[in-house]
Every structure is written in structure tokens, then in C-alpha cells.
Amino acid sequence: MTNLHHLAQQAVRQALESGRTVGTAESLTAGMVSAVLADTPGASGMLQGGVVAYQNSVKQSVLNVPSALLASVGSVDGDVAGAMAAGARTVLGADVGLSTTGVAGPEGHDGKPVGTVYIGIATVAGTSAFEYVFDGNRAEIRGQACGAALERLLEALSS
User: Fold this and answer.
1) Number of domains, the chain
2) pLDDT (tens digit, 9 = 90+) per residue, 131-154?
3) If DSSP codes are grouped into helix, strand and coil, which group holds residue 87?
4) Cis-peptide into 41, omega within 30 deg
5) Cα angle vertex 151, ends 93, 15, to 5°?
6) What is the CATH number for 58?
7) How far apart are CA 47 and CA 98, in angstroms?
8) Around Cβ 75, how many Cβ atoms within 10 Å?
9) How far apart are CA 75 and CA 72, in angstroms?
10) Which of 74, 110, 118, 138 has the highest CB neighbour count under 10 A?
């Protein structure tokens, strides 16, 4: 976990220095990203909040992910990650929205193999998504997804 805490410390510091706030929307990580950020001193100055959107119904109703998108591609998709991040940015009133969606296992989901993860980032400049394929058991994949999300957040805050 120390690497996660180190990344979180960097992200919190970068957000505070740049005066930007962050909101999260998490599916497979189910709150891990916001929890690791909140473990970091100073997080109250940058973390707006987080939405755990495990079910598609929550992705739709809370984060405004289009139902047609979910119906056509499933929940494990780059466009869905982007829409989740944009939704988090909007509903949480944050400068940066950060999302995670993916397959932690033990079985595939929506036609995607175990270990497939998408991280979404939304800022005033627009929305982007990043695809990853991780190896390991459920807990390891969730941990790697959390680390990837913190890395992408740090990148977004550094630009």
C-alpha cells in the first residue's frame, strides 16, 4: 500500500498547490481511490467527494452516464469511464473528475476479460480514458487499478 499512499500524497500536494479540487466515480475500486486520498493529510482541501457506482443503474441515475452507451458497450469501456469522470466532475462540483471501471474477476464481465480496467479523467479541457490490462487476483487487480487512477490524477493535476 505504500506506493498508493505515496501517489496519493503527491496528488494531494499537487491539487493543493494548483488550487484544484477532485471528485471520484468508482466502480471496481468501490471507494478505494477516495479512501486512499482521504488517508492523506490535506485531503480536505482538495477532495470534494466520491461516488461508488457499482451498478449500471447508479452510473446512469447519479453520474448521468447515457443508458444507450451502457446498453451498447457495457460498463467496462473507455467511453463509460470518460462519462463517469465527467459525471463525477459535474455532480461533485470538482475541477477534476476521476473514474475507475473494470473487471476484477474471478470471471469476465460484459465480454471483457479479467484484468481489463479503464481510468477516466475529466477536466475543463475535456475528457479522456486510459485502458489497462492487469494480472492477479481480485484484490491485486483492484489495487493496481487504484494505483493507475492515482497516477492519471497526478498527471492531470500536473498539466
Assistant:
1) 1
2) 999 999 999 999 999 999 999 999
3) helix
4) no
5) 40
6) 3.90.950.20
7) 11
8) 24
9) 9
10) 118
Return phi, psi of residue 108, to 5°: -60, 170
Domain that holds residue 79: 2-158
Could you tell me which residues are beta bridge partners of residue 117? 102, 132
Amino acid at 51: V
Cα dihedral sign for 122, 84, 90, 51? negative
Single-letter code of the amino acid located at 152: R
DSSP H helices in 19-137: 32-38, 56-61, 67-73, 78-91
What DSSP designation does 40 have? S
Angle, in degrees to the nearest 10, between helices 138-158 and 2-18: 20
Asked if 137 contacts 147 with a C-beta cutoff of 8 angstroms, the reply is no
Q: Is the pLDDT assigned to residue 1 strictly greater than 90?
A: no
Map grid coordinates 477516495 to a residue. Answer: 34
Stretch 51-67: mean pLDDT, rounded?
A: 98
Q: Give 11-20 pLDDT, tens digit per residue.
A: 999 999 999 9
